[in-house]
Each structure stands twice: as structure tokens, then as C-alpha cells.
Amino acid sequence: MSNALEAMMLICFGLSWPISVYKNIKSHSAKNMSFRFNLLIIIGYLAGILANKLEGMEGVTLLHAKSAGLRPHEGSSVNVEVDGELAGSLPATVEIVPDALTLLMPPEFLSWTT
């Protein structure tokens, strides 16, 4: 399965960039990136996530940590969002807390976890 997802990721990225460059040259503008281009990029990233191949992809930095301190560039302000809600601004510390999240779900959904 991982090989198929990696192949899908490579095909999506391999097709999307040349198509986008061709369209941008033809239209003399990069102003309106097409929906198809963005969809191919998103599918490629999703395939990469599912195949666990994000490390090494252009524009992706993968870090493993239990906590991270985040701070903005000097003189700038960066807002922090948590689940789509404004939670404050940088500097901030993000920490993995074991067993901190409780999910409520119907019993039929529990069968895939065991």
C-alpha cells in the first residue's frame, strides 16, 4: 500500500508542476492558479502523509519533539490558532500531553481501534 501511495504522490507532483508552468507561460501570469493544480498538490501531500514520505519533500520540515517553543521574527507579530480559534500570539510553547484528549464516539466505531 505504501508503494502505491508513494507512486500516486509522485504522479500528482510530476503532473501538476509542468501543467501549471505551461498554463502560466501561456497566460503570461501566475495570478490564478487552477483548481486542478491545487487539487493535485493536495492529493500529492495526502498520499505523502499516508505513505509516511513527507520527510525530504520540498517545503516540508518534519520534526519529532515532545514540546516546541515558537517565537516570531523580531519586530513581527504572529497569531496562534487552536482548532480554528484564536488562542493568542507568539511566543508560545506547544507540548504533547499523553492521554490529554478524550473522544466520545459510538461503540461501532471502536472496532477499528482494536
Description of the molecule:
The chain is an alpha+beta fold and 114 residues long. It folds into 2 domains: 2-51; 63-95, no CATH class. The protein is built from 2 helices and 4 strands. It has helices spanning 2-27, 35-51, and strands at 67-70, 79-82, 85-89, 92-95. A hairpin with a 2-residue loop joins strand 2 and strand 3. Helix 1 (2-27) runs antiparallel to helix 2.
Radius of gyration: 20 Å
Strand order of the largest sheet: 1-4
Summarize model confidence as the mean pLDDT: 78
Approximate helicity band = 25-40%
Structural class call reads: alpha+beta
Separation of the first and last Cα atoms:
21 Å
Count of beta strands: 4
List segments where confidence is low: pLDDT < 50 over at least 5 consecutive residues: none
Count of individual helical segments: 2
Number of domains: 2
Gross geometry: extended
Please trace the helix and strand order, writing H or E for each element.
HHEEEE
- Largest sheet properties: 2 strands, antiparallel
What amount of the residues lies in strands?
Answer: 5-15%
Name some characteristics of this structure.
114 residues, alpha+beta, 2 domains, two-stranded antiparallel sheet, two-stranded antiparallel ribbon, 2 helices, 4 strands, 38% helix, 15% strand, extended
